[in-house]
Amino acid sequence: MTADEQHIHFVTGRLAEHAVRSIVAQVAEQQRFAYSISVLPITVAALMTPRWLLRHLQIPDVATRVLLPGHLLDDLQELRQASTDIVECGPRDIRDLPLFFGAQSQPVTDYGPHSIEIIAEINHANRLSNEELLTHAQRLVAEGADTIDLGCTPGQRWTTVGEAVERLVDLELRVSIDSFDPWEVAQACRAGASLVLSV
């Protein structure tokens, strides 16, 4: 199948809708494929669970590929068995979509002066290896982040969250913890997290 014959259906949440539409349009023009986008009734796409997604997912008949948010990669086999084999996962970060398709992205090299602090969240940080977490955090700092926010996964206690925070703090990175679990928050704060979100 050539690129011109592909119709890729993208799935996202309300918060990322604008970014997804903008980036997908850019990539589709470069890669020459047709596309459609479903904005599901959820604010943050990273909070989709397989069960919730299957209740809301509607795939157009013309779709040859369905691209889901990257955080669902661990659940991909379950989703394929319950829906269709054309389902796959994109990158965890929508900004990496051009690279995912082998397209050229347009990096922003100068954000200008700012008087705000930028918090960059790593969603489902507990699913990353130590090396992946460090690499991702360092990349975000290089791109302008002042604080790295470690996003936890509801219902999956991150037993080594303190060690993860300590490794980042040892690199002189500012760390925040995003969790509804008081135990995870306590462990992260003891290890050096300076900000708590979502309590």
For this entry, give a set of tags.
4-stranded parallel sheet; alpha/beta; 7 helices; Rossmann fold; 199 residues
Could you characterize the architecture of this molecule?
The protein has 199 residues and is of the alpha/beta class. The chain has two domains: 3-100, 3-Layer(aba) Sandwich (Rossmann fold); 119-197, Rossmann fold (3-Layer(aba) Sandwich). The chain is built from seven helices and eight strands, in the order βαβαβαβαβαβαβαβ. The protein has helices at 17-31, 50-56, 76-82, 97-100, 130-142, 161-170, 182-191, and strands at residues 7-12, 34-39, 65-68, 87-89, 119-122, 147-151, 174-178, 195-197. α6 (161-170) packs parallel to α7. The longest helix is centred in the first third of the chain and has 15 residues, at 17-31. The protein is globular, with a radius of gyration of 18 Å. The termini are far apart. The mean pLDDT is 87.
